[in-house]
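Worked problem 6 (solution included).
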Amino acid sequence: MGKRGRVLAAVTAVAATLLTAGCSASFASGLSDSGGRVIAAGAENQYADVISQVGGKYVQASAIMSNPNTDPHTFEASASVGRLVSGAQLVVQNGLGYDGFMNTIEDAVPSQARKVIVVQHLLGLPDSTPNPHLWYKPGTMAAVAIAIAAALAEL
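Solution. The predicted structure is:
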């Protein structure tokens, strides 16, 4: 197994451990009223997919932007998007200005209990990072999966 395979195996093991810890009785007591699942939103479809994979049946994940033809720079959130974010216990967004509309929505519907993962900050990237498409960067999604598992364990 190469270095990349070993890193992926280690990341998967850590994520599984965190998720298992999150599925304990304390996790169940923090679930939402939506069929007993944590309500989560990914600003982009890629992040919502990772939320679904990590959280499985314990999470109801939705993507804010799921149409690949959507331009994030001209995206206008609807009232239903505001309701989704308002009810979300976990939000994952890209950062780097790619999905700046998420900050506006989160500010409009504040919640002390909502956990927000900004992938830019998770990866320690400066605002001057030239390519905002962070999901293409090797290792990004593994780091996101670990952060999601940790957030779900806290919830």
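Discussion: The longest strand covers residues 38-44.
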